[in-house]
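Risk register update: the risk that structure generation would not scale has been downgraded. Supporting records follow, first protein first.
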Amino acid sequence: MNVLIVLAIIGVLVLLVSATGGLTLAATGYLIAKSTAKFGSSGGTSPPPQPPQPAPSGDFDAASRTWRFAYGGGIGAGGSPNSLAPSPGFWFDMPTSGDVHYMVCPVNMNLTGKKEIAFSFQMNVSADADFQASDPNEGPPCHVSIGLQRVGDDLATQLYSRWFSHLMMPLQDGAQSFVIPLDTANFGDVGGGLSDPRTPEQGLADCMANCGNLLITFGGKYFAGHGVYLRKGAARFQLQSYIVR
């Protein structure tokens, strides 16, 4: 924030204190906080997100792009999994301390016209592995699913901003491959649209046209992305392909 603006705000508040016989410390702090919040902490509001770029005309495999952990605890939210380079994909060990919720792949793409996602992964799971859901209202069996997140999603107020596959794939030993069409029969949004006047089809089309992140999410029996951890044993997740076509 511009230092001169800060000094001007503080000067005005000092005059108010003198004129009114003194404001409480809490009231003064509140006014400063409200005033500075209006301008932001770096001289203005945050820049708007960049407009989505056109997606590649053909198929593209997001497994070769950068992925990171998000929203979970203990596995390093914001950190990255281990690369399988030179092959596409990554791997990580399921946590026994903390959990894993989302993996996000930033794309900022217009996916209009794309029809489906082909998703394949491999898991190496010990015989004594005991997967547990992080959400106390959930339980096993635990699953992995895929999804889309709209540019600007704040995880709270934006409707039709996150979509998850109805197909939830079990966390079990071995290789699994699925092809999931990008339509409302196969993807559901957070909150079911609630009061949004748009139809689900319009909501999904908007999310695809303004796709900020591709998602891989982990959860229990019902809720995508609510988190998974290992109570005991060992398990390694390896993404092999995430082809948008």
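Supporting record for the second protein:
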Amino acid sequence: MVRGLSRTMGSLASSSSSTNAPFQPGMKSTTTNTKPTWSGQLSFSSPEADFTSHYIPNTLTENDRSRLVATPSTTAVSSSSSSILSSFISSIAGRNKAAASTAATYVPKTFKEALQSHKEAIVVTTATAPFTILYVNEAWEKMCGYTSAEVIDHTLDCIQGPETNVTLATSSVAKLLVADQVVEETSSNTAVEPIDMYLINYKKDGSPFTNHLTIGTMTLNEDNDEPHFLVGVLEEISPDQVPLRMI
């Protein structure tokens, strides 16, 4: 009986020794960890994507662990988001630049000023309907494709087309003239601010262009306070330069 008991105790000791033996390099583990573990990454691609059920040995360094749990989708999402954000910021910057140029647009106050050489395209019309063209400068001719002789005594219908917002142009002119009349009737010294808008206009060859148009009232000279004319300053821009407030 003693001999049998000794064999039994020896077997238990051997089993206990095998179970409690420390893990040695090169030994194969017979246990696996299948409990989902947070990967330490936020990819947002799916609720499960940020967890991993792979066994990660405790002997790995933090650097090794990060390489194992990193997912390609995280990099792809970050890259895509950065690209979209960059494009959006560029778009906003371009529109803000256009808005800044709007405030700086030069508008002649007198006919004498309009006749001076300007790089801006300028057109002068009567201040009453049908707003007959009285003068265009060289920059306007180059932009629109017409010569001065072709448009004098005609209207601005020559640069309008299917996509021209005639309602916007007409209402803006009416608003300007009403404001000017109020100033005149109240004998106010307040200057009537020019009005700007964005239109699709057409060149002589039929090609459309985005026109940043600024209009104002204009007198004959400095000594005459009563407005006799309307003046328009045209600026050809690209569609993506139209400020967000105008969309």
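The beta strands are 37-38, 51-52, 121-126, 133-136, 195-202, 208-218, 229-237. On this basis the risk owner (M.S.) recommends closing the item.
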